[in-house]
Amino acid sequence: MAATDSSHAHPLLQVSDLAKRYGEGEARSTVFEQVSCEIEAGEFVAIVGDSGVGKSTFLNCLAGLDSWQQGQVLHQGVDLSTLDEAQRAIWRRAHLGFVFQAFHVLPHLDVAQNVALPLMLLGRLNADGQQRVQQVIDAVGLQGLDQRLPQQLSGGQLQRVAIARALVHSPPLLLADEPTGNLDPSTAQQIMNLLLQQTRDRGTALVLVTHSAEAARRADRVLRLTAGGMQAETAAP
Ligand SMILES: Nc1ncnc2c1ncn2[C@@H]1O[C@H](COP(=O)(O)OP(=O)(O)OP(=O)(O)O)[C@@H](O)[C@H]1O
């Protein structure tokens, strides 16, 4: 019976034969090609690879923030290349959370306003939405700091704001690009713990780009991006 249930017909994310190139003719350079992978709902997958191999570019392709020259990115069966710019923006709002190394918290909005932003853009900032904002702020350990401006927060606190904002609308997928790269080792560990706990609690799939072997070790699977494709990394002995 389960095989006929359409909600299980597609993986959460399916990437087939993706290629990213810059330039034309003689000047053409390939960042990566023949990249394929699947991510299931609720999975935590770490993506590792040499510096400059295109990990951030790949993550941006998954979010439909960057374009590609060949292949497909399907989210629950929806082919991102069939959506125009405006449709992608609307799709992104509903289906994704994104956390960056440089936090990307809006400087003129306070903590609660930053966290509320996705719900506001989705037209869901009603009484339930406001309550949800408060719950998420508490869940990431920022209780009492709702009205602080970003300039009054530490790096670790700023990343907590970014995580709360990425999860407030309960997206099925969270993309994180080196989210602990700007933090000291002890804060980085706290933020990784928080990211994992919050995504696991909600059944959110997490795709994490990282240079940290320690962070990658905690993933369900580790994938290595190379210029010629994506390979499953086997666990160290
Ligand atoms: N406009 C462009 N023209 C040509 N090449 C470009 C352009 N923009 C980016 N690149 C190249 O794309 C590659 C991928 O960059 P990206 O930042 O995605 O790599 P990364 O694996 O995330 O690197 P890091 O681990 O150092 O953050 C780089 O080698 C970069 O030089």
UniProtKB/TrEMBL annotation:
Keywords attached to this entry: ATP-binding, Cell membrane, Membrane, Nucleotide-binding, Transport
ABC transporter domain span: 13-236
Any one GO molecular-function label of the UniProt entry: ATP binding
Pfam families, alphabetized: ABC_tran
Family membership noted in the UniProt record: Belongs to the ABC transporter superfamily.
Protein name according to UniProt: ABC transporter ATP-binding protein
